[in-house]
Amino acid sequence: MSGSVASPAEHAGARSSITNDQAAQKHPWRFWAITIALSLTGLLSTIEGTIITSALPTITKALGGSSAYIWVPNAYFLASLAILPLVAQASDIFGRRPLLLMAVALFILGSGLCGGATSMRMLIAARTVYVSNI
Prior knowledge:
Blueprint (H helix, E strand, L loop, with lengths): L7 H17 L4 H35 L7 H24 L1 H20 L4 H10 L5
Helix pairs in contact: 2-3, 3-4, 3-5, 4-5
GO molecular function: transmembrane transporter activity
GO cellular component, one term: plasma membrane
Membrane topology: Multi-pass membrane protein
């Protein structure tokens, strides 16, 4: 009976050899490229959601829509909260890569629409295009 149960020292030795083997393996360059690309995508999404608030007074003055001031940043956040569960389920069905590529394409489209906005309504609508950029 005692021969079938491993001692704590044997368990510790087994665990350390596994971690040493795992530590010896190096990740290929592709792993690091993907990790950096995903990190930059997440950073851009976070910055895009919050940076507009510092430029918003100037934008509102240029477009003349002070009554819709609050909707410019909130349109992005409300729409992203509404679509987040749908995008999560779609990524389970279709995979993450096609949805990430679509999100980047919509980010570029939304950036162009926001840059060309001629009214506050158009700016708010363009901000909601960013929604899939989660």
